[in-house]
Structure formats: C-alpha cells, structure tokens
Amino acid sequence: MKRIQIAYVAIVLLVILVVVPSRSMALTPRCQVGNVSYKIPPQAAPAQRIQTATTVYGSCVTTGEDYYSIRVDLVDASSSSILSSNSTPIGYNATNFLVTVENTVTTPSNNGTWHFKVDVYVIRAGGTGGFFLLDYRSTANATIQVGTIPVPEFPQTAAFTLTVAVLAVALLRRRRHA
Known about the structure:
Layout: H1 2-27, E1 31-39, E2 43-44, E3 49-60, E4 68-76, E5 82-91, E6 96-106, E7 112-124, E8 133-146, H2 158-177
C-alpha cells in the first residue's frame, strides 16, 4: 500500500514538473525582436539633455487577447546603471510591429566618448519581467562624443623650432631663385 502511495506521489510530481509547464509554455505567446535601430546625436555638450529614438521591428505569435508594449532602457556601459527608461505601446495586434520609443537622457558632465547600451524589451501587459517578458535585445555599441575632441599636442623644443625656421628660410630662398 505504501509503495502505491509513493508511486502515485511520484507520478503526480512528474506531471506537475513536466506536463504542466510545457503545456502552459505552449500557450504562452512568443515574441521576437527582429531589428533594432537608434538615432542619437553624434556629439553633445557635457551635461546636456538629449533625445534619442529607438525603432524596434518584430513579431509575436498572439491571439489578440493580450496587450503588448516595447520598453527601451539606456544603460551606462561603465556603471551598468539605467539612465533612461521609456515604454511605447504596440497594442493588442502584435503579429508584426514597428514601434519607435523616445528617451531623454543627460550626457556625462566631462568631455570624452560616452559609451552606453540600448536595451529593448517586449512586454505583455501586467508586468515587467518573468512571465511577462517576451523578448530582449541589447546593443552595446552606442557612443556619443561629449564635449570637444582633444587635439593632440606636439612637443615643441628649441631644436624643433630651429628646424622649422631653417626649413622655412630654405623654402623661401628656393622660391626666390626659381
């Protein structure tokens, strides 16, 4: 009798662990981000608020009963902190979608090349992760030149200045004799 109870419990656990998740996962709508492109200014001043636009193309296998949206996070590459997050709805029909999400972000306060990531999420209404997160894409190659690009300085020694002066005189003499 005890063996039958153990076998019954084992079968119930097996059904719960294998059959139930695969059945619920089969019913879960699947989404796929096909392409992500973004528009950012190539250069900005330090501590300047700038606007970015991320265009997301993708598709979902959907019944039309759930509401979908795209969330775009701009993430600083060095600190991994989210600098800006914004969502734009796709709607109920997410079979094929083309959505543009705008973010506003403030550039760093010092000059240099600023590297950041553009993280894109397809989300079903009701949550932001786990069961509600349907696809994710990250692009790590976004850069903006903040401030001016430093011009390399050439060392100017007395010998360098003398050489330039001698060459200038030689070129002027040659030009006069030609």
